Amino acid sequence: MAQLWGGRFTKETDKLVYNFNASISFDQKFYKQDIRGSKAHVRMLAKQGILTEEERDQILGGLDSILADVESGKLEITSEYEDIHSFVEANLIDRIGDPGKKLHTGRSRNDQVALDMKLYVRDEIEEIDAELKKLLEALQVIMENNVHTYMPGFTHLQKAQPVTLAHHVGAYFEMFRRDRSRMADIRKRMNTCPLGAGALAGTTYPLDRFYTAELLGFDEPTRNSMDSVSDRDYVIELLSAMSTVMMHLSRFCEEIILWNSNEYRFVEIDDAYSTGSSIMPQKKNPDIAELVRGKTGRVYGALTSILTTMKGIPLAYNKDMQEDKELTFDAIDTVKGCIALFTGMVSTMEFRKDVMEASAKNGFTNATDAADYLVNHGVPFRDAHGIVGRLVLTCIDKGISLDELPLEEYKEISPVFEQDIYEAISMKTCVEKRETYGAPGPKVMEQIIAGNKEYLKNN
């Protein structure tokens, strides 16, 4: 059992206790970050005269060789070691001897693990952001190609008013754009370096924490050594932001599942993103959409877990905080995988434009426009509302849409109606007249799409 402590103890740790306490099974995930942090620490120690240049070079060479051997598979990270820190240090000492024992000068595992976790989370935020950008690019293509694809807009899952597919998908574009903004906020706020905080109270060595922060790409060192080793706000913020990403994905998946059903038939999901039934040969199931929807709870669970873990911890570091890793790692992998799969699914999905437009007509989504027609001809809106309600009842009784109702029947309910009512309630007119900023009118949508294009180019 390779450990970084033991001098004060008179007997071996119980094997069950050792296994329960050890973190090597999961913290090995950030071996790159641990070695990167150690290299910056060593460079700073040499700069401050705490290590000689020769010792610095020996240690850096040893760390580089460990990294190369782990990545090539020549060196395996095993449960022989308590954690990733003891793995790196033990192997370093084996390779270069006594200089390796000086690696930990002026450092604690508390500030070391805080650094490793920050570096790892920071790297993963950039990867999540890259996946979100790919998703936005896929949505942008759909929007560009469907400015004139008419479909029903819904409230309460009831057909409400006509919109376009570009406008509907554009709503999700805005959601995922905000998700990227949240990721950027978290990265900016967390970008302070905890290394040099020691166990909780700094160190008597003349460390240059600003230099270490600079080497590792941080804006500055953390400002309080106790907070440095006990802060996991950035993990909670990331899990919260990822939960929001999954909520957005899940909402879109729910709509795709509905749209893919026989009752809607708005979309055809590509075979590569569907599965069949073991007993019913006719089935083509939207399993990817369902799984993304299902995995949302998994990410929510990680957020709840870390909030519960952190709520009762006094300053400064406590072993409970080791629980920040496994669920966070799993949530990150889940979110990245879900975004990538969802992007592939929507990129290959076929939209049935004719079915969408027919659904908008048959759902009386143009009823508001019929009322507006009357208002524009001098009828008070409340009266117009009642007149069109009666028209809808008539159409329901006849099993037809407002577009199909004969003019004489319009006139029986209100003599104000003329032949131009059909033009006024056409899907094209209903959508094109909605030109307030943010509405589905084509001029507005083209402006929004151009803005999206510029955003994706610059961000």
TrEMBL record:
Q: Which InterPro entries match?
A: Arg_succ_lyase_C, Argininosuccinate_lyase, Fumarase/histidase_N, Fumarate_lyase_CS, Fumarate_lyase_fam, Fumarate_lyase_N, L-Aspartase-like
What are its GO biological-process terms?
A: L-arginine biosynthetic process via ornithine
- Which Pfam families does the UniProt entry name for this protein? ASL_C2, Lyase_1
Keyword line: Amino-acid biosynthesis, Arginine biosynthesis, Cytoplasm, Lyase
What is catalysed by this protein?
2-(N(omega)-L-arginino)succinate = fumarate + L-arginine
Q: Which pathway, per its entry?
A: Amino-acid biosynthesis; L-arginine biosynthesis; L-arginine from L-ornithine and carbamoyl phosphate: step 3/3
Report the EC number(s), separated by commas if there are several: 4.3.2.1
Q: Where is the Argininosuccinate lyase C-terminal domain?
A: 364-432
The record's listing under CDD domains reads: Argininosuccinate_lyase
List GO terms (cellular component aspect). cytosol
Q: Subcellular localization, per the record? A: Cytoplasm
MF GO annotations: argininosuccinate lyase activity
Fumarate lyase N-terminal domain mapped to chain residues: 7-301
Q: Which family does it belong to?
A: Belongs to the lyase 1 family. Argininosuccinate lyase subfamily.
Protein name, as recorded: Argininosuccinate lyase
- To which species is this protein native? Blautia obeum
UniProt lists the gene as: argH
